[in-house]
Design brief:
- The structure holds 2 protein chains of 2 kinds.
- By secondary structure, chain A is α/β, with parallel strands linked by helices.
- Chain A has 2 domains: about 5-205 and about 325-435, 3-Layer(aba) Sandwich (Aminopeptidase); about 205-315, Alpha-Beta Plaits (2-Layer Sandwich), CATH 3.30.70.
- In chain A, about 40% of the residues lie in helices and about 25% in strands.
- Chain A has 13 helices and 19 strands.
- Chain A has helices spanning about 5-20, 20-35, 40-55, 110-125, 125-130, 150-160, 165-175, 230-245, 285-305, 325-340, 360-365, 390-420, 430-440, and strands spanning about 60-65, 65-75, 75-85, 90, 105, 135-140, 180-185, 185-190, 195-205, 205-215, 255-260, 275-280, 310-315, 345-355, 370, 370-375, 375, 385, 440-445.
- In chain A, the strands form 5 sheets. A 6-stranded mixed beta sheet of chain A has the order 1-2-6-3-7-15, sandwiched between helices. A 5-stranded antiparallel beta sheet of chain A has the order 11-12-10-13-19.
- In chain A, a hairpin with a 3-residue loop joins β1 (about 60-65) and β2.
- The longest helix of chain A is centred in the last third of the chain and has 33 residues, at about 390-420.
- Chain A starts with a helix and ends with a strand.
- Chain B has a 6-stranded mixed beta sheet, with helices on both faces.
- Chain B folds into 2 domains: about 1-200 and about 320-425, 3-Layer(aba) Sandwich (Aminopeptidase); about 200-315, Alpha-Beta Plaits (2-Layer Sandwich), CATH 3.30.70.360.
- The radius of gyration of chain B is 23 Å and the shape is elongated.
- In chain B, about 40% of the residues lie in helices and about 20% in strands.
- Classes of the chains: A alpha/beta, B alpha/beta.
- Chains A and B meet through α8 and α9 of A and α7 and α8 of B.
Chain lengths: ~450, ~450
């Protein structure tokens, strides 16, 4: 394909997406209107399935409960690039778009990803464009990116429905990515400054702690001396955790934060069982390890102080995000066609965002990119996080991803092949699965 | 009866002749306060006074203790009349020593005055000849359980074994043949009254050392282990135990930080805490001590520091003798009127008179002759007539009741006393409280 042919193909793609703008934005808004938390996204999944089937795709459904996969084959064999969209919402009951019953709300803008994935699928399904591809494109719709409702997910794990607690993790385990060579998705953001798009950088790894304090109940007024207060134990642990903060190095981007998910049953009984859910994040799984050890020490200290016992269940969380420079460069070049050079913020690899994504896990086994499109207002995960610019949130990412794929799979998939040759993922999918399994541990500490 | 009344009358008139001198001695001690096991000047003053008054005197007992003995020459009970030599350390007290900050913010100087008052009346031949038995005037060091590091150094040097002066007296065998003991403390209840009866908490003392790792607090705090954070968490963990303390046990745990770090730009690596664990009974002291140790250990565990917990025997709970109290009450009432003798409640404070009370029938009435808060900068004895003279008279008249008629009443009080423990058991128990454990990872 000559340069002229390539720009003609891209122009056709942009034209196709522009023509579908109304439908794509409607699709995103439709997902926004049915917010569902991770592994429960049945309505959203059914909707996306319908849309893909309408484009002529054969859709594999029910992967990790609600995940899906549809593959578009190019005219020639070649690498397979995945475009990802996340199905799940958060739970923010006071969000204007919250489901009044469940409190689920798209306070992280995943619904926009649905729209942009459908945009890519629409454009690439055009016969002329599809024929230009020397390779394949997989549309992978992933459940449960938000690492929440851990107790519910652990129940699903115990019931044998899941092994890992996020969508992409579970899909890696199930082999959904065995035939995928590289992946991309675009996430919304409320941005900083005037940049329209932010690419590059890393995100934190994390581990979740499910901490159960067992004390002894007693009448809180009549016989407090007979009780062992599990809530005091948890609160002391929380204070102890705070006392560790001066030992955290800025360069490690440590975040430690917890919630008390059960703080006692009735106020006139000494709490005998308290659940604390903690999260430890830092710039890599390796950096987390010694910090998590300190945090576990704090959990134990709470138990020791009160004479309670504590069970600490560590739940394998996410890995840090590694973004591929070649895909990123192509993505940026195509983004410049839409936003101009000055409106694109290129974050250095060394800069780690405090948050986490299971795109990081996928980046352990293949080259990926995970840019952010500045199209929302408010605070991410807050009740004021609203996608305000749907053209930018849905249409622009669809165009840039489509153009990036066209370029990568053109000319015998030269760029995609180069990407694969130069990429050096830290582990294979099988190694990843084994590492994650090793991160699930349970210890019981009973000092008395 | 008439005989006793005569004895008491001679006793009183003898004291009246010397009341100015006795009050002056108390005020002199007030102006020269010395903390426990350092009361050298006070001890010399007491020893000199007794020698000048013709008593047999032993000095330098348990460093600074003094005993003066009055022997009637007739067999009978042995009574200890006691006074405490030591002061507190209260910077800002109007009578504080400008160098040491020692201050009589607990009124012990008045106790010496009342003890000497008893001695000046009983030594009079017409009184002494009416009595049988012996009276030992014991000026005891170190009732206040303070300056634990200093006392630990005395312990390490073999100069003392126990931190309370009366405990040392017991250990040295000075209570082996004592039948009855009494001491009058000042108090701040309704002015002009004397309190009788009551009881006191017992206690143990702890010194705690957190050992962390120093590092530049700005440049490399991640390389340090913060002993102050460990201590802070240990203290917070102690507070979280409080809801488990039973009202009836009157538990008190009140730590201080004696070393909280050396310089602010270095992560503190050595932090020291002193605390008491007090309660009304020994099982509650031991139970609380276990909780406190657990809490201190948690601070170390959380931060990765080490903690060394040294526990020293403190004082035993005090229970004052009912029969002896009744005799005393009668005498006090004869001096200040029935309505002015009040019944004391349980006090959550502690005294080494508690230890004495576990061995012999004991009373520690209070002369309510002060204003301000006990141990505070405003604690002042403002009624010396009550604190020194009347207090001495009430004790001395009680001695007369006990030792007159061949010591018949004294024998009764002593004979009906059911000692909670023998001296050998007492010593074994006190030594059993002692522990020194370092907890590390």
């Amino acid at each position: 394909m000559t340069i002229t042919e390539a720009s003609e193909t891209r122009a056709l793609a942009f034209h196709t997406i522009d023509a579908a703008t109304h439908d794509l934005i409607s699709a995103a808004k439709s997902a926004y209107a049915t917010p569902e938390t991770g592994f429960n996204e049945y309505k959203t999944a059914a909707f996306v399935q319908e849309q893909l089937q309408a484009l002529g795709f054969v859709v594999e459904t029910g992967i990790a409960r609600t995940g899906m996969k549809a593959v578009l084959r190019g005219s020639q064999p070649g690498p397979t690039i995945a475009v990802l969209a996340e199905l799940d919402a958060l739970r923010v009951p006071s969000h204007p778009g919250a489901d009044p019953e469940t409190g689920a709300a798209h306070a992280c803008g995943h619904h926009a990803q649905i729209g942009s994935l459908l945009g890519v699928a629409t454009a690439l399904s055009t016969p002329k464009i599809k024929n230009s591809l020397h390779g394949n494109v997989a549309f992978i719709i992933t459940p449960a990116e938000e690492f929440i409702e851990i107790q519910n997910r652990l129940a699903l794990k115990n019931a044998g429905e899941l092994e890992f607690l996020s969508g992409k993790q579970e899909m890696i385990r199930l082999g959904t990515f065995y035939d995928i060579d590289m992946a991309m998705m675009v996430h919304t953001s409320a941005g900083n400054g005037s940049a329209s798009l932010s690419v590059g950088g890393s995100t934190n790894a994390h581990v979740s702690h499910q901490v159960r304090y067992i004390g002894k109940s007693a009448h809180a007024g009549g016989a407090p001396d007979q009780g062992i207060n599990a809530l005091q134990a948890a609160m002391l642990a929380n204070s102890a955790i705070n006392a560790q903060r001066e030992t955290f190095r800025e360069s490690d981007v440590v975040r430690v934060h917890g919630i008390i998910s059960n703080g006692g049953s009735s106020v006139n009984a000494i709490p005998s069982e308290v659940l604390y859910e903690g999260r430890v994040r830092a710039k890599s799984v390796e950096v987390i390890a010694p910090i998590a050890e300190r945090i576990v020490r704090c959990y134990r200290a709470g138990a020791l102080a009160m004479g309670a016992s504590v069970e600490v269940q560590s739940v394998a969380g996410y890995h840090a995000l590694r973004q591929d420079p070649i895909i990123q460069n192509i993505f940026v070049a195509n983004a410049e066609l839409i936003f101009g050079r000055d409106s694109i913020d290129i974050v250095p690899d060394s800069q780690t965002n405090g948050g986490s994504t299971d795109m990081g896990d996928l980046s352990m086994i293949m080259p990926v990119i995970h840019p952010y499109i500045n199209s929302a207002s408010g605070v991410g995960h807050g009740n004021d996080y609203i996608v305000t610019d749907y053209d930018r949130a849905v249409v622009a990412p669809a165009k840039i991803m489509t153009a990036t794929i066209i370029e990568m799979l053109a000319n015998g998939a030269q760029k995609a092949t180069e990407t694969l040759d130069k990429s050096n993922p830290p582990m294979t999918a099988d190694e990843y699965v084994s590492v994650q399994r090793g991160r699930f541990t349970t210890e019981v500490y009973n000092p008395s | 009866m008439a005989e006793r009344a005569n004895l008491k009358s001679s006793f009183s008139s003898e004291i009246n002749k010397r009341s100015d001198e006795l009050e002056r001695i108390a005020r002199d001690i007030l102006d020269h306060p010395e903390s426990g096991y350092k009361e050298f000047r006070t001890a010399k003053l007491v020893a000199d006074w007794f020698m000048d008054s013709g008593f047999d005197v032993q000095a330098g007992i348990a460093k600074t203790g003094v005993i003066a003995t009055l022997n009637t020459g007739r067999p009978g009970p042995h009574i200890a009349i006691m006074g405490e030599l030591d002061s507190l350390i209260v910077p800002g007290h109007p009578h504080a020593d400008s160098v040491t900050n020692a201050a009589h913010a607990c009124g012990h100087h008045a106790q010496i005055g009342s003890m000497l008052t008893v001695a000046s009346g009983l030594v009079e031949t017409s009184v002494k000849d009416g009595l049988a038995g012996r009276i030992s005037f014991m000026a005891t060091p170190a009732e206040e359980y303070i300056e634990l590091e200093y006392r630990e150094s005395l312990l390490a040097n073999g100069e003392i074994e126990f931190f309370g002066g009366k405990q040392e007296f017991i250990k040295l065998g000075l209570f082996d043949d004592v039948d009855i003991a009494m001491l009058t403390h000042t108090g701040g209840e309704t002015a002009g009254t004397i309190g009788v009866g009551g009881s006191n908490n017992g206690m143990i003392g702890k010194t705690v050392q957190y050992i962390g790792k120093a590092a530049h607090a700005g440049g490399s705090p991640h390389l340090g282990v913060n002993a102050l954070n460990a201590a802070h968490l240990g203290l917070a963990a102690i507070h979280a135990q409080r809801e488990t303390f039973r009202d009836s046990d009157t538990v008190r745990v009140h730590p201080i930080i004696t070393n909280g770090g050396s310089v602010v730009n270095s992560v503190p690596a050595d932090v020291r805490i002193e605390t008491y664990v007090r309660a009304s009974n020994v099982p509650a002291i031991l139970n609380t001590s276990e909780k406190v140790d657990r809490a201190f250990r948690a601070g170390a565990l959380a931060t990765g520091a080490e903690v060394r917990i040294t526990t020293n025997p403190g004082y035993l709970p005090a229970k004052y003798d009912d029969r002896l109290s009744e005799i005393y009450r009668h005498n006090a009432a004869s001096l200040i009127g029935d309505d002015n003798v009040i019944q004391l409640n349980h006090s959550s404070g502690c005294t080494d008179m508690g230890d004495v009370s576990q061995i012999v029938p004991t009373i520690q009435p209070t002369a309510n002759a002060t204003s301000g808060n006990g141990h505070g900068i405003d604690y002042i004895v403002d009624n010396y007539d009550l604190a020194v003279i009347k207090s001495g008279k009430a004790m001395g008249m009680t001695v007369i009741d006990l030792l007159a008629d061949n010591g018949e009443k004294g024998r009764k009080v002593s004979g009906s006393f059911n000692a909670p423990m023998a001296i050998s058991e007492y010593l074994a128990r006190m030594r059993g409280f002692r522990s020194d454990v370092t907890y590390s990872k």
